[in-house]
Structures are given as structure tokens and as C-alpha cells.
Amino acid sequence: MDRLLFLATRYVQSYGVKVEDLPPEEARLTALRGGDRPDIERWWRDPETGQMHVVIRGLHSNWSKKGRGQIISPYYFRIDDFDPFTGGKKRAAELVAPFWRRAHREELAAGAAAAWRRYFVHDKILNGLNANHLLPGRMGVQVDVHYAFLSGYAHPSKRGYEAIYGRNFPDERGLFNHFASELVLLYVITIAAAEVEAYGRMSRRAPRLPPAAWDVVEHDVREARLGSDYFWFLGGEPQSLDRIDTLHTPKAGEDPKWGRPRRDWRKIRPSDVAYYPDPLDRLKRLHQTWQEMSTGVVHRSPFELP
Q1: CB of 166 within 8 A of CB of 159?
Q2: Residues 6 or more apart whose Cβ sits within 8 Å of residue 67
Q3: Mean pLDDT of the chain
Q4: Where are the alpha helices (H) located in 116-174, listed in sequence order?
Q5: Is 56 helix (H, G, I), strand (E, B) or coil?
């Protein structure tokens, strides 16, 4: 969300359009773009959801047909107006609100719920990030994976508990777990580094806001990146484990192949390495040295734990 607040120069409006209504709707958007709405950049319809997505340039401090003026992220106003503390649309009529009319309370709650669905759910945030090219390369896949993983801890999840403590070990609850602790630190370091980098990019835009001692900050960010490079989230590089897992992952239409592989996992290009689905499981395996019996492939951990 902060990437959109700091760096977004475009936003996405989405609404439903039936297939039979698509040609006239595209004609309408084309006419708007050639007339009073030159800020309309492009659009597309998602056939799976029936949603039309329209990318719009702006906002500009001094708006003109050429889009001149200081660019202001539209998400600044959206998040500033959003109120998450209305109590929810469903229960608005049952909650205390001294000297407020019931209809007004329900209207505010309904507006907050609509704004959440329209702008702040995960898919809508991703649409905005992609429209602004703020998730380059395969970073969108990374964000989806970690969003799903962390949801297993933000919401009640038996598997989330078992991933750390194992099954049927309630007496271990609260004990220090190296992998969970390391993973938390990796998230803090990685997200903080990305946050500071995004802020630095914003500060170089008009109106410029040069932060003090920025060279020191950049040095700290580089050190943080180097120390967390193996996490391969919002930066970093795939590790030998990721290359081995990619080697054993069948391509579309293929069956799993056993025995010694024909390819050398060391020669797989970084762009061809598939991303991991489970950050905690991968972290545990990164700390282990092992040899596969069926393939003979060996993984040597750079930081093996007993």
C-alpha cells in the first residue's frame, strides 16, 4: 500500500461489463479519451470476472490535457478517506452512536465497506501496483505467495501452528523456535529495506524532499539486502535449493521423472527458477545438507543447523 502512496502515478477503476456490451463500452472510452478525458490511458476486460479495468493517469496538482503538474498519488486521498472503524455495515444498526441518526450510521458503514471492496482488497491493490509497474519481474508472484502464507497466521489456522510446533505437541507452545524467529527477522529486514527504498524514490520527485544523511541510509539498506539475500522476497536471488526444486518440477504436460536428472541444476538461469510456495518450509530446508537417494543430487547448506 505504501508503494502506491509513495510512487503511484496511475489508478485503476473497475466495473462490470457484459460481453455483449463490450463494443459500445470500448467506443465510449475511446471517445472520452479523445475528448474530455485524455487522462484515460488504457483498459481491458477480464473474461473470468467480467470486470472492465480502466487505467487513468494522475492526479496532477495543476491538471491539464497534457497531464502537466506535480503528480499526486490518488491512493493518498483514498486511504485518507477510508474509515475502518464504523463497526461494519452488517451491524451498524445495532451499535451505539449517541446523537447520530440510524440512516447516517448505516450510510457511513456501507460507504466504508464499498471502499474496501473497491480499492483495498488484495486483488485491487495488485491491479494498482501492476498499472504503475511497481512489481517488476516476478515480484507479483512473490507478493501473492507471502500474502497467502501470512494469512495462515493472521487468521486461525491449524496448519500454521503445526508448521512451527508440529502435530500434537501443545507443550511446546511458546518455546523459542529458530526458524520462526529467523523468518520474522527476514520479513522485517526485507520489508523495511523495500519501504525505505520506495520512500527514497518518492523524495526525489517534485516537490523534492531530500532526507538528511541519505548516504548512510543507503549503506544500511545495502547491508540489509546482502544479509537477507537468500530470502528471495522483494529482492534477493534464488538459492541452490530453489534450482534443485525447479529441476524436479515437471513442466506443463510432463510427468515426474525419477532417476538422475539430465540437466545440471547449477546451469538453470535465474529467470527460469520457479518460486517457492512455503517460506517456512523452504527456510528449514535451506538449513539442511542432504543427498537424494533416487537422483543423487546433493544440497549443501551454507548455514547448516543441527
Answers
A1: no
A2: 38, 39, 57, 58, 60
A3: 88
A4: 122-131, 139-154, 158-165
A5: strand
Contact 70, 58 (CB under 8 A): no
How many residues does this entry show for the chain? 306
> 136-178 pLDDT, tens per residue?
989 999 999 999 999 988 888 888 888 888 887 766 667 888 9
Q: Which residues pair with 11 in a beta bridge?
A: 56
Contacts of 200 (CB under 8 A, 6+ apart): 211, 214, 217, 218
Residue with cell 501496483: 129
Q: What is the pLDDT of residues 109-136, one digit of tens each?
A: 999 998 898 889 999 999 999 999 999 9
Q: What are phi and psi of 248, to 5 degrees?
A: -95, 5
Element (H or E) spanning 42, and its range? Answer: strand 40-46
Please report, for residues 16, 82, 105, 179, 301, the alpha-carbon distance to residue 113 in angstroms, rounded to integers and kept in the order given. 18, 9, 12, 37, 48
Burial of 242 (0-12, 13-18, 19+ CB in 10 A): buried
Query: What Rg do the C-alpha atoms of the chain give, in angstroms?
Result: 24
Q: Which of 231, 144, 220, 219 is nearest to 184 (CA)?
A: 231
